[in-house]
Amino acid sequence: MSQIDQDERNSRQLILWGPHGQVAVTNSRIFVLGSDCVATEFLKNIVLHGFGYVTVIDDAIVSDDDLRTNFFVDAEHKGKSRAETVAELLQELNLDSRVTGLNRSPFDLSFISEDPKPNFVVTCGNLKPSFLEELSKVCRANKVHQAHIQTVGFFGSFYIDAGLHEIYEGSNTAKYPLEELRVPNPFPELLEFINSFDFENCSDKEHSHIPSVAVFYKAREAAAKELGVTVDKLSSDQILSQIKKMRRVCIVNNELIAEIGFSEAEEKIYNYMYPRVPSATREVFSLSDKIGEVDEPFWHLVRATQRFYNTNKVLPHYGGCPDLDTSTENFIKIKKIYEEKGEKDWQQVRNDLNEKGVTIDDSTFKRFSQNVWRIGAVNYQTIPELIELKPSPMFENDPKDKNISIIQCIFIAFRKFFEKNGRQPQNTQEDRDSLFAEVKELGVSLDDEQVKKYIQEFSRAKNNLIPSVAATFAAILAEEVTKIAIKQACPVKGVFLYDSMANYAQARW
């Protein structure tokens, strides 16, 4: 990749996930135990994402099977270390990543205690639950994230354990949420601004530029007075009716002009109607109550924000303001009002933290405060728990969901078979019967004939990989690992299952 291509990629990534995300990816150290088709497809995406340190550990030798399924080996590599071979070719994709191949057993866990230590470990293939449990204990003890991915034929599953994971920029993509205009219950400075507009005596030009926050608030007050009810009893239709009454025909320089603030108030009335705390933020508060005092900057900020909310009944304002249809003069005024509100609220949070002897660096504090309405968190289960997770009865109604439940159970059966027999299941009647018995032992209500059908499909693959399925599924895992590294969006919270025959996938936890 040329320097120009690298610069373009870095610029795109900065736009996509910002400077915090870019730094996180660049500093990430990811170890992959295995170098088969699934592993290399995952690695390809991770390297292209720009992960700074990537290590491949495997003692496998390039074989004829690899030449058919693994795009990161050639005929000239036959008989050589597969880990070293794929690392060499992966390095060519991105010179900014440091890709290392180690020709050693992927079951030797001594790498955890060596420098540089990983912060994410990924395993591949149908592995024994006992090994995954051993690895999980080591990863948890060293605060290392863990993922396991396996595909068989047309089917795939992966499992993620990122510990107690915090999210700064969650799934809400809006940079300036309309709900945070605080129109239903304006704070004093905003109310003063709203009351500064004289709807009756202003000029047509001024009337046409009254911002929607003032239009909504005044219409709601007028509707409540006219109907003799409190504002919380009003419907959106009643407020809309009042907005229409408050409109006027505005003529400036002999031309009819639109009342853009009134139109915006009508369009966004459902965003303005009720005060609300985002559900994701409420979930973080709830999780904070469950986990107690966690000595991490994110959780110190969460608890301080909770205390602010308990006192003020609103979140500290993030300090931003969306574009509003009004005059430049009005917008500058209202934007400053929200900026100053944010500064005031977060100074209160900062003072609270100082009183408790907690110091948060400015970068983290700013990142949290600007995204307080879309923070998130996941308290992951361990990999041993996730690989044994049984389907919930809630998935019994939809046919596609039921088939995903069957796939979920068969992957459990595949691992149990390997644990008990020391070999991978083959396409024999005896092994298929054993897999069916393992599924039945799980005690999940499933259609027996459908289970047998899917076991047949699994067995036909003979534990082999289909490159196209592996590529698609591994790319999905790479995206989830990236989300976790940059602490953005909403990563899979546990298990992800894929049925390529039905082109259907589902996350479960």
UniProtKB/TrEMBL annotation:
Name of one Pfam family that matches: ThiF
Keyword Membrane: no
Keyword set, alphabetical order: Ubl conjugation pathway
SUPFAM superfamilies: Activating enzymes of the ubiquitin-like proteins
Keyword check for Cell wall biogenesis/degradation: no
GO cellular component: cytoplasm
Superkingdom, natural source: Eukaryota
Functional pathway: Protein modification; protein neddylation
Domain called THIF-type NAD/FAD binding fold: residue spans: 11-488
GO molecular function, one term: NEDD8 activating enzyme activity
Gene Ontology terms describing biological process: protein neddylation
Membership in a protein family: Belongs to the ubiquitin-activating E1 family. ULA1 subfamily.
Protein name: NEDD8-activating enzyme E1 regulatory subunit
Gene source species: Tritrichomonas foetus
The organism's taxonomic lineage, starting at the top: Eukaryota, Metamonada, Parabasalia, Tritrichomonadida, Tritrichomonadidae
